[in-house]
Amino acid sequence: MSIQRLDQSCESPFRFNKYKMNQWSASLLILFVFQVKFHLAQEVQLSDNPEIFDDRYKGCSLKMAKIIPQILRSENVSNYIFSDGWRQAIDYWRKIKPILKNLPKGFRDEHGTALVAYTGSLYKAFNKATRDVGISVKNYKNNFQFKAMHYFLTTAIQLLYNKRKKLVYRGVRDIKFIPSSKSRGVIRFGQFTSSSVDAAVAIGFGNSSFFTIQTYFGVDLQRFSMYGGEKEVLIPGYELFKVASFDRQVHRFKLISKGQTKSRFNCAYWKASRPLG
């Protein structure tokens, strides 16, 4: 008996109901996927004061440098995601350090490791953590498990800053950004933001929103990156941009750096715990 005939001979009400159930399940699945995609593609506002941890350590960098080794040791024990990614970054940094030239004065191994770690596996968890604790100093002190990485990443960007404007691009998948009406045409990203000098590379990361950016404080990370082909420029979250143009239909931005910085937090580790307005 052929398979086709066997199937025909075994038809029953149960088989019919199962087929109907499969149709119903498939419909639910399609609806669920549509809802998820709709949710992911919802609009997100950009402003000049996002609730993201964005400390510049202005006026306390040397003070932080004295205690940060202890914090780094503690987070290596308490945060396994960080410790695993940091360990991988150390190995890669040791490989590339001998061929890197003209590193700035004061640039330590931890600075290089932080840059490598961000270009590697840690950027998602790290950026999410900065968003999760952006409401208050207390939240940062009690819940932020990337204090050491944030300090070394921030100060590395500051040490490598060369006062040259760069034209870069950023593509984003599943999020449609819009400028906040309260921002009066001035925004900042709040978190560290990856971009590329190559528009084709940037659009490969997403096309739901697309940014053409002139950055003043962004730093070229190609020689530090685990993925040099991405031609990455890392923009600090505290850089202020003027929205030169915005196309709402396709969510296309042109941003021009104001050559200024602003942060919600500064020297938060040393401040009394309080909410931020």
Automatic annotation (TrEMBL):
Secreted recorded as keyword: yes
Keyword field contains NAD: yes
Annotated InterPro entries: ADP-ribosyltransferase_ARG, ART
Reaction equation(s) it catalyzes: L-arginyl-[protein] + NAD(+) = N(omega)-(ADP-D-ribosyl)-L-arginyl-[protein] + nicotinamide + H(+)
TM regions (residue ranges): none
Gene Ontology terms for molecular function: NAD+ poly-ADP-ribosyltransferase activity; NAD+-protein-arginine ADP-ribosyltransferase activity; nucleotidyltransferase activity; toxin activity
Record key words, sorted: Disulfide bond, Glycosyltransferase, NAD, NADP, Nucleotidyltransferase, Secreted, Signal, Toxin, Transferase, Virulence
Principal subcellular localization: secreted
Record's subcellular location: Secreted
CC terms in the record's Gene Ontology section: extracellular region
Enzyme Commission number, as recorded: 2.4.2.31
Source superkingdom: Eukaryota
Family label: Belongs to the Arg-specific ADP-ribosyltransferase family.
PANTHER family reported for this sequence: ADP-RIBOSYLTRANSFERASE, SECRETED EXOENZYME S
Protein name as it appears in the record: NAD(P)(+)--arginine ADP-ribosyltransferase
UniProt organism field: Engystomops pustulosus
Organism ancestry: Eukaryota, Metazoa, Chordata, Craniata, Vertebrata
